[in-house]
Amino acid sequence: MEYLIGIQGPDFVLVAADNVAASSIIQMKHDYDKMFKLSEKILMLCVGEAGDTVQFAEYIQKNVQLYKMRNGYELSPAAAANFTRKNLAEYLRSRTPYHVNLLLAGYDDTDGPGLYYMDYLSSLAKAPFAAHGYGRFILNLPSFTVRLIDKEGIHDLEKLTSGAK
Amino acid sequence: MRQTLLVTINTASKHQYSQQGGETACSGWSLLSSPVEYAQEAVKKGSTAVGIRGKDIVVLGVEKKSVAKLQEERTVRKICALDEHVCMAFAGLTADARIVINRARVECQSHRLTVEDPVTVEYITRYIATLKQRYTQSNGRRPFGISALIVGFDYDGTPRLYQTDPSGTYHAWKANAIGRSAKTVREFLEKNYTDEAIAGDNEAIKLAIKALLEVVQSGGKNIELAVIRRNQPLKILESKEIETLVAEIEKEKEEEAEKKKQKKST
Predict the structure, then answer these.
(1) Do the domain assignments include residue B98?
(2) Quick one: residue B125, left, alpha or beta (phi over 0 = left, psi -120 to 50 = alpha)?
(3) Which residues in chain B have Cβ-Cβ distances shorter than 8 Å to A65?
(4) pLDDT digits (tens, 9 = 90+) for A123-152
């Protein structure tokens, strides 16, 4: 079971995701990074159907970069979240919907930190804290990648691990 | 019958290009034999752009057209980033350039998405050239009236400069100029592009400014300059920085003139 969590602070957003890539009962990887850097101050965390996650996340990532190239400045987190949701919604009623659950975390220079919850039915909610999945540390999920976004950008924090290997 | 048809097509092309360029009544345009040639003429009327490939830096300089009195001096950017490591300057029809630049930007991201690597400068040049060529050989469309200078660094660190023209050909250059007075600038570069001249970043930038000063009317105010250094994003120089460099160049010129005087007198 995959797990994502995000917490918005007064001037930062803290996010964490587990590091397991599993296929049924087999853990294929235990160092898998589920966070996608959309821009200097926006991170997208993505879990769900294998393949859909990377395809959808990279598609959004490249489109956010294209916006930056075309316009000379980056999309705000709110705009990026709405863009993502719109794409999910369009694909939802097609033959090829994306089964992905997302958290989008970002820092807007004018509005401050923001955390957005999205799911595979293309719902969107701005929330102070949010999570996807069941994250039982140590017993089920051995380690988590943790990152922080503030006005300086994205910072890597120490991985949470059980220490045992 | 065929002859009259040719003439009509040509005058139509002439009209298409001259209208776009803001010229009235196709004056100054003689009958040419193909739409590509008209596009090339349109390029020759555009403001000058110069590109220089240094060792650790690539430089693009353009002549800024003076704006009308009531027009806001928001810098009409003739130098545009295509991706974080590639940028281009153009000469010719600005509207046509917008289309080409947009397509190139999309292609840069598309390439990253499918191949997980940034484009090489040659790849994106080839893409732009192919796009231009398609418009020289298809029904009812006229060629893009722009030449482009494309600069950047490949991911192995090699600096590159390419030039494309409306026919869809492209070539790599060490230094080149396009637009009005391109010939004069190119001749200047042929004389002055030496290993010394591009030894350092500053020298390469000064060479670009010197080349433009040959043809630009009133000096630093009418020059826009952009540089890419290895592993760094595009940087557009502020007018203050350009003024400082222009002042340095003037000083060097004076010192050169002084030395020559002294040599003559001794």
Answers:
(1) yes
(2) alpha
(3) 109, 112
(4) 999 999 999 998 877 777 889 999 999 999
